[in-house]
Amino acid sequence: MEFIRQWVFSLYEIGVLPSMFQYAFLTNALVAGLLIGPLLGALGPLVIVKRLAFFSEAVGHGALTGVALGILLGEPATQPFVALFCFCILFAMLLHWIKSRTDIPYDALVGVFLSFAIALGAALILYVAKKVNVHILENVLFGSILTVKDMDIWVLLLITAVSAVLIIKGANRALLASLSPDLARVRGVNIRLYDYIFILLIALVTVASVKVVGAILVGALLLIPATSARMISRNGREFFAYSVLFSTLSCILGILLPMAGALPIPSGAAIVMIASVGFVLSLIIRRWRVIQ
Amino acid sequence: MSVTVQLKEMSLSLNDVEILKPISATLQSGRLHAITGPNGAGKSSFLKCLLGLMPHKGQIKRHWPDKNRGVAYVPQQLAFEPSLPITIEEYLTTTLTSKALFFKRVSSVRSQVEVLLERVGLEGKEHLRLGQLSGGERQRLMFAQALGQKRHLWCVDEPMTGLDVTAQALITQELLSLRAQGVTLLVVHHDPDWVSDYADEVWSINGGLVGHQVNLHAMGTMRLKTPKVMNRNQEVVA
Q: Which Gene3D superfamilies match (chain A) (predicted)?
């Protein structure tokens, strides 16, 4: 990581980059953003095709409880990775397990889990808020570019690599399983295994994105760029490409713009707001195409 | 002709309600087996039990030499979300290769897709979204994905639903060609004329097997008989 920071600093010194690039934390945040953006962008279309938008939102909110549990169990308040990951996985698996064994409508089930996650998370967060600096909690929940450390980037790199392999290897089968489940089963696709792998991925990216996007807003970044891409794409390749592009741009601009304008906005909030601007632009482009 | 599938007392119950009474039957290679029966008789459920898509009791014994050449399935018209940006070409590609659809497709897969679409009369429509297809076109697409595999057994659920006369002739021709290659065909169909013209064996299902008829007329003449092929103006061209 040090050589990247040195390289960016040297570009600032020779006047290629503006003064904000003299700060190492900005370089760290940008590297994290360049990993998170494509990762969330590539996963987003699968979330849309599998109609799991509400599910990923629920897992993101489950992270609230995961963070509080981590702090309660003695993990560092700035890096409660183990509890966060374990809780998100448990939460997502339990939700999916109940879904596969009952005939409760999926949206109602996710609604129950989402409400419970927020209620439990709020109760625990208020409790642990007495023990730690409340700003640390804010950073974990809504993201902060100041807190990204080398260790976070290595964790992120590992999760991105694992996710990339799983997405590249399984995208086609996951797509077929979502569009025509019976057909996929006859062709030997283990739909249950793919569902659980997908849940694992959602939990992994939630953990990976906590530092920059914040636990609460990860779900939004899985959903908004992919929805924007869906509106203006003519085929599946464009769908994936635009989603990755929108998500990456949102991350980079969401990190840079508040810094350039000296705005006291959490990076997660800025990233999601920029993604929402992209959504509005996509709506306009789609409307313009219809008129044309 | 050899035995492809043997069913021994295969039955289906859901929530303690008996959908199919125990059925014992044999499917033979190079024959077209038609399943008929009224709505709600359990025809599609029978097919799904055979495919392992529904929990059933009894035994299903498969006898085919190459385990990689299992079953091809043509489901009854699937619904696709209209705004989902997945094209016909991409859908077929996902059934042919494991290479993720966001990578550039290799030319062999592209030409394979072109051939399949041509065989079902969907040539020139590869860039249409799944949601833009009519019911008949969706049915043809389902047929195309099955043609992409070389399978011992074909399970086809109401293949003519929504198809115009030309497409019906095209699909019938493909089914007969598969039969001639020794493929075992199991076709759910409600049209008695089509069944009596083309099926070698007819199984009547109504909550269980209520009738079995060997169609000697079809067996004796079918391999020579070809359906009428019509052009877009419904004129017979072959």
A: ABC transporter involved in vitamin B12 uptake, BtuC (1.10.3470.10)
Lateral strand order in the sheet of B17-28: B17-28, B3-14, B57-62
Task: Give this prediction's pTM.
Answer: 0.84
Please check the confidence at residue A35 and state whether its pLDDT lies above 60: yes
Claim to verify: residue B168 and residue B238 sit in the same structural domain:
yes
Say if residue B238's pLDDT is above 50. Answer: no
Question: In chain B, which residues have their Cβ closer than 8 Å to the Cβ of A236?
Answer: 85-87, 90, 101-102
Spell out which chain A residues touch chain B, with contact meaning CB-CB distance below 8 angstroms: 42, 48-49, 167-169, 171-173, 175-176, 179-180, 182-183, 185-188, 230-231, 233-241
Q: Please tell me the distance from the alpha carbon of residue B173 to that of residue B192, in angstroms, as a whole number.
A: 18
Q: Which of A101, A102, A168, A180 to mutate to test the interface with B (most CBs of B within 10 A)?
A: A180
Class of domain A2-291: mainly alpha
**B93 — contact with chain A (CB < 8 Å)?**
yes
Residues A196-215, mean pLDDT to the nearest whole number: 82
Does any domain span residue B108? yes
ipTM of this complex: 0.81
Domain boundaries, position B114: 84-150
Q: Which distant-in-sequence residues (6+ apart) come within 8 Å of B83 by Cβ?
A: A230, A231, B131
User: What are A134-159's pLDDT values in tens digits?
Assistant: 777 777 777 777 778 888 888 889 98
Asked whether residue B224 falls in the same domain as residue B163, the answer is yes
The verdict on a CB contact (< 8 Å) between B53 and A237 is no
Boundary-marking domain end, from B135, B150, B165: B150
Distance of CA A118 to the CA centre of its chain: 18
Q: Where are the beta strands (DSSP E) in B65-193?
A: 71-74, 153-157, 184-188
Q: What is the pLDDT of residue A282?
A: 95
Task: Mark whether B232 and B117 lie in a shared domain.
Answer: no
Is B42:B35 a contact under the CB 8 Å cutoff? no
- Domain shared by B40 and B138, yes or no: no
Q: How far apart are the C-alpha atoms of B238 and B234, rounded to whole Å?
A: 12
Residue B218's pLDDT band, with cuts at 50, 70 and 90, is: low
Q: Domain ranges for chain A, please list them.
A: 2-291
Q: List chain A residues with CB under 8 Å of B93.
A: 172
Query: In angstroms, what separates the C-alpha of B205 from chain A's closest C-alpha?
Result: 22
Residue A102 has pLDDT above 90, yes or no: no
Single out the residue in B106, B126, B150 at which a domain terminates.
B150
Assess if residue B190 is contained within a domain. yes
Mean pLDDT of chain A: 86
pLDDT of residue B220 exceeding 80: no
